[in-house]
Amino acid sequence: MEQMKWEEALSRVEDECDCCIAATGPRREQNWQQDAVAVMRREVRDPRGWRTIDDCACAHEASGNPSFPFQSPDAEKLAENTYPITIDAATSLLTLITDQWFRVSNFVNSGKNRDLLLVDARFILARYGPDAQMFTTSGDARSTMNPDFSQSAQAGHSFSNYIMEIGLIAVSDTEVGVFWGFNAD
Fold first, then answer.
1. Packing angle between helix 114-126 and helix 87-96, nearest 10 degrees?
2. Which terminal CB of the chain, N or C, has fewer other CB atoms within 10 Å?
């Protein structure tokens, strides 16, 4: 995986995001939720030194809460409120995170190209390897590992004070990627 190509794909996703976070941290614990919380709290840096997306960086400094917009994230809450999904579902979900209402129907009005976003999402998630596990906070995944994210996604448990949000977590043996979209309106 080439850093420059991965960062270009991440930049295109960032260009389409209204309010999102995309960051990777090292996998140190057997319990991946602890590693994801460390990323959410900004306690760790990307182990490869690659770029991240943090549309909330200025606000978290002003708020005095280092994990802003997340409100006291903890491993137990993540374990209770995330659900495993397939890589195909995760790829579709990553494109939906770019829309504040998590709907494909809004892509036409905003000029977003879903096909290009899908290519970028596949490339971004490939970083974590073919054996990576994917998890989401979306309520659509409560009963199936392959929810249909082709048109929209249902928000799930809220880890912030925003109106709506959806999280996607990619877990490999060595890294944990945290991708989160927020409706900040």
1. 130
2. C
